[in-house]
Amino acid sequence: MPLTGARPLPMDDNYAARCEAGQVFCLHQDNALAGLIVLVDGPGHLWIDNVAVEPALKGQGLGRDLMAFAEEEARRRGFAETRLLTNALMAANITLYAHLGYAETERRQEKGRHRVYMAKRLE
What we know:
The chain is an alpha+beta fold. The protein has a single domain, classed as 3-Layer(aba) Sandwich (Aminopeptidase). It has 3 helices and 6 strands, in the order αβββαβαββ. It starts with 14 loop residues before the first helix and ends with a strand.
């Protein structure tokens, strides 16, 4: 059972549709999928819908690389802000995002989960 006590919602996402929409960006290492990020244009910001790294490769900075890519992509698309959410129980994620310059903007309960919304202004 995951840390949150429930199946992560991104596991049930329609990745074929996301790929077709051009929202999925993959990171490869040694000719294998190492991670991915799902980016969606929002009103005035780039929404980071999902960041995932192959569990065996965690701790190598790949998540940070994906987040840096998201910020570069946001700038390329003309956005001055990136936004995301994470589960309130994912303290390590919240700490990492804060370290990367994200500020908490809101907490609320949705879909049976306690969510933390965060945003980062880009320079």
